[in-house]
Amino acid sequence: MGIYSKIKGLSDVDVSGKTVLLRVDFNSPIDPQAGVILDDKRFREHLYTIKALDKAKTVIITHQSRPGKKDFTSLYAHAQRLSELLGKPVRFIDDIFGSYAQEFIKKANIGDVIMLENVRFNAEENLKLSGEESAKTVLIRNLARMGDIFINDAFGTAHRSQPTIVGLPEVLPAIAGLLMEREVENLSRVFQGAPRPVTFILGGTKVDDSIDVARHVLLNGIADYVLAVGVVANIFLAAKDFDIGKPSMDLIEQLGYTGQIEIARSILSQFNDKIVVPEHVAIKKDGVRVEMHVRDIPADCPILDLGSEGLIPCLDLIRSSRTVVLNGPAGLFEESDYSFGTYEIIKAAAEAEFSVVGGGHTAAVIEKMGYDSRFTHISTGGGACIEFLTGKKLPAIAALEKSSERFA
Ligand SMILES: Nc1ncnc2c1ncn2[C@@H]1O[C@H](COP(=O)(O)OP(=O)(O)O)[C@@H](O)[C@H]1O
Ligand SMILES: O=C(OP(=O)(O)O)[C@H](O)COP(=O)(O)O
Questions:
Q1: Which of 62, 157, 385, 394 has most ligand 2 atoms within 8 Å of CB, for mutation?
Q2: Lesser CB count within 10 Å: N end or C end of the chain?
């Protein structure tokens, strides 16, 4: 696998007749009330691996969202969608490792595809643990009894040191799936040859990941500039002592990111001239979009998008960059009144010589716009993609390398 030659893939191992535990990342935008999957890009990207396992018994392990979020659901609809795309039945088991799951898998036939329940329903999967710690969990000890080999295809979750990602390779021979291989190869190529200046555009809601990446890429000279949009921008605006209004502060608190404001302040004190934070925004006032400077925001109105004047410094920066890494939307794009900033940023980013996109929501908008082919690479990972591009060795990759050595 290119620079990750220590990792084995499907071309190195014959899985015929084996029971494969396949970790994928089907975490997708869904309508939790209707139980409808709104975007199935990740399903389509994993199909190559699943189809390549037709001579094995395939047990799919995946998650949807996190505890506490509205879209933290059961995976019944996921199994149905996979079955439609695969063109064959996918048996959903509403169990993770109990006796029902164990028995069902034992009795299944070669060629069968079985999907287990949302693995994050098991509390241990939500812990940040090392491989050794993970191997001792009840979850991993029981899952390991159900398979002969572990295949990790979940690039989108490769940055999480969680039991199924780092623990299963400790206890079973583990290889990378085809999507994992493709992501690592494509992103390595882009990363190694990225022409300067390099700008990271960080938006959406995963503020802790984004702030960490911003600091890392600026400290290590990987990026020349960081452009903050979406909720990430709101954190930087608050760090600059703007009063961003109660609803935007409430959202930050609700997401558990209040402490990130102080961290953003310290990054700004070091890299003020490298971080662009648009100060002209769009708010919702009496149900309609109103644009204004952030210093004029009424206390009870949420910031939901970039303002048109705020877009100007963003476009200037993007157009002067030869490499653009885009992760996270610039606003509440699901509401058409607040999709303007996200759409304009995407159009500009698509023009860059090297353009890499991460993040499920961001990729979905790009697909909807029909802009897919204009980007150099659209990753199935959000946080995983940007962390990979910072040069960090992702826990999933390290675990696969270790497993290759151990089970050589
Ligand atoms: N200013 C904002 N206020 C509220 N939500 C926002 C704002 N900006 C972006 N968002 C939301 O961010 C979400 C996507 O964030 P995230 O999951 O981090 O993106 P990705 O999946 O692309 O990594 C979208 O649902 C979008 O509505
Ligand atoms: O969708 C994911 O991350 P992403 O939105 O950063 O791409 C992965 O499934 C990881 O999910 P997590 O960020 O809840 O650990």
A1: 157
A2: C
Q: Which atom of ligand 2 is nearest to 162's Cα?
A: 15
Q: How far is the CA of 175 from the centre of ligand 1 (A)?
A: 33
DSSP string for residues in 161-198 = --IIIIIHHHHS-EEE-HHHHHHHHHHHHHHHTPPSSE
CATH class of 2-179+393-406: alpha beta
Could you list the beta-strand ranges (E) of 213-364. 225-228, 275-276, 280-285, 288-293, 303-306, 323-327, 354-358
Indicate the pTM of the whole model: 0.88
Specify binding-site residues for (2R)-3-phosphoglycerate: 42, 120, 160
Report pLDDT for 35.
Answer: 84
**Atom of ligand 2 lying closest to residue 25 CA:** 9
- Taking CA atoms only, the protein residue closest to ligand 2 atom 7 is 382
Q: Exposed (0-12), middle (13-18) or buried (19+): which is 408, by Cβ within 10 Å?
A: exposed
* Phi-psi sector, 17: left (phi>0), alpha (psi -120 to 50), beta: left
204 lines ligand 1 (CB under 6 A): yes
ipTM value: 0.93
Tell me which ligand sits closest to the C-alpha of residue 228.
1
pLDDT at residue number 191: 67
Residue 50 to residues 99, 112, 124, 135, 378: CA-CA distances in angstroms?
Answer: 25, 11, 26, 25, 20
> CATH number for the 196-352 domain, one of 3.40.50.280, 3.40.50.620, 3.40.640.10, 3.40.50.1260?
3.40.50.1260
What's the CA gap between 390 and 358, in Å, rounded?
13
Q: With a 6 A CB cut-off, is 205 part of the ligand 1 pocket? A: yes
- Residues 6+ away with beta carbon under 8 Å from 145: 97, 102
Q: Is 334 in the pocket of ligand 1 (CB under 6 A)?
A: yes
Maximum Cα–Cα distance for the chain, whole Å? Answer: 66
Q: List every span in the chain annotated with CATH 3.40.50.1260.
A: 2-179+393-406, 196-352
